[in-house]
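Risk register update: the risk that structure generation would not scale has been downgraded. Supporting records follow, first protein first.
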Amino acid sequence: MAGFLKSLASPFGRLFRGRPPGDEAAPAAEPRRGLVIAIGGVGGLDFCGPALRHVLAGSGLPYDLQLFPWGHGFGRWYADLSRVADRDARAALLADSVRKFRADRPGEPVFLVAKSGGSAVAARALEQLPPGSVERAILLAPALSPGYDLGPALRAVAREMVVFWSPLDVIVLGAGTLLFGTADRVRGPSAGLVGFRPLAAQAGPLGKLRQVRWGPGMAATGNLGGHVGPDSPVFLRKYIVPLLRPETADRC
């Protein structure tokens, strides 16, 4: 009983006596180190970025996550896809954001995670950055043409660019881009359906390109191979979060 009364009295006693020696307030949390920028697809309906934010918050990685809006508004998918000058202007702003972060916090890693049409924004931003500005770039279901020249973008990547593509993404990145064109304005299947087809996959900066084809084993994560598959939090936790560790060398 005495111990119970003492436990009740202690908080009230502190109101008058202050904290006892050695009972200082916990130190403020250290500022987060590193930045992940998520670039969603066309049409202003982004599930991937918020899902990645949720997953990253529970990962223990000391990073901030920034959602980078770049489109013309909800439902305006064709404007996002076809207005190249607007997209390039947003890509320039993205490149500026990376430069500012690197200037303010040198030595801390930056990662780009782009989905679908947002891959074009990421690629154009990378093309404007100095070598090694970004630790890794991850393109999910990219709506770029298979022959898009990734060389200039890869020079800005310190480690690698990882591309996730699926032969089952036939509605959006097959029929869709055949009818309406890819983000780089080529009518035909996207790299998110068939992969990129570089002229010399192991030459120069293209040696940093790694492509991951969808496989049946990914279905257990909620990624069934369609266009929304990479939005699955379980998929992001298993396949994407490990790539956000600077020291990671594992293969998917």
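Supporting record for the second protein:
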Amino acid sequence: MALSLTIALGLASCGDSSSAEPLIPFVSFNESISILDQRYPQLRTDNGSVEIAGGVRGLIIVRQNATTYLAFERNCPYRPYDAACSTVTIDASRLFLIDDCCGSQFTLQGQPRGGPAPRPLRQYATSLSGNLLTITN
């Protein structure tokens, strides 16, 4: 009996430690931008990225290729409710994304590459129709 209880308690303590981290709030939105808009010249080259309004703290749009665009929440998954911080930006090198407050870094595909962030950036759905890119959650 004691062995069964010990095993059960041990298994209960196992698991993904990131599940203890708070999740980013959910906000419903539907944003559309023209990829030819003069404000977004970076969206005309592969791996180009821009920051726009939408989501919780804004969106980062990354062009993978001429037909594929990725959209990520700018709210960092590490301490997402920290009002003074927790905002991801495009690094000055334009090679990765970063939260300057906590030091978390992410690839242009939204995957963590350094720092305390426990999970990837929240990714949103994108669809391209002609020159109109629509981002929704």
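Helices lie at 2-13. On this basis the risk owner (M.S.) recommends closing the item.
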